[in-house]
Amino acid sequence: MKIILFTMLACFGVNVLADDHMRDVKTANPFIELHPKAVQPAADAYYKAVEEKVFNGAIPLKYAQLVALSASVAMKCEYCVPAHTSFAIAAGATEEEIKTAVAIAADVALNSSMLYGTQFDMDEFLKMFE
């Protein structure tokens, strides 16, 4: 399992080290090539900044990956869910934390659907949080 996980991480251009930081390794980020050639340098700079300033920023890496997993579940991204699950595990997340992140996404989706589907009044909703 660890060999598969770290192989996958290397494919994404990431190495999760013991200090809980994602580090760029010598492999190219495959997401860069998804962008038009004219903006690939800007995309490369963007991904590097996100890794350095977001995933290794104000929120500890494990929790940042759990947030990313929850967002991935909410978006129903079949690519992001396994990637952020693996990254979260590599950053120290437990199975229970993974399940909780998924449950949070499900709860937000449920309540969003209920509010939207019943056409709940927005002004009334906002008054609940004053």
How much helicity do the residues have?
55-70%
**Order of SSEs, N→C?**
HEEHHHHH
Q: How many separate domains?
A: 1
What is the structural class?
mainly alpha
Distance between the termini: 48 Å
**Highest CATH level, the class:** Mainly Alpha
Largest sheet at a glance?
Answer: 2 strands, antiparallel
CATH homologous superfamily descriptor:
AhpD-like
What does it look like?
- The protein has 130 residues and is mainly α.
- The protein has a single domain (2-127), classed as AhpD-like, CATH 1.20.1290.
- 62% of the residues lie in helices and 5% in strands.
- The protein has helices at residues 2-11, 40-55, 61-75, 80-90, 95-117, 122-127, and strands spanning 14-16, 22-24.
- A two-stranded antiparallel ribbon has the order 1-2.
- A hairpin with a 5-residue loop joins β1 (14-16) and β2 (22-24).
- α1 crosses α4, α3 packs antiparallel against α4 (80-90) and α3 (61-75) crosses α5.
- The termini are far apart.
- 17% of the residues are buried.
- Mean pLDDT is 84; it is low at 1-21.
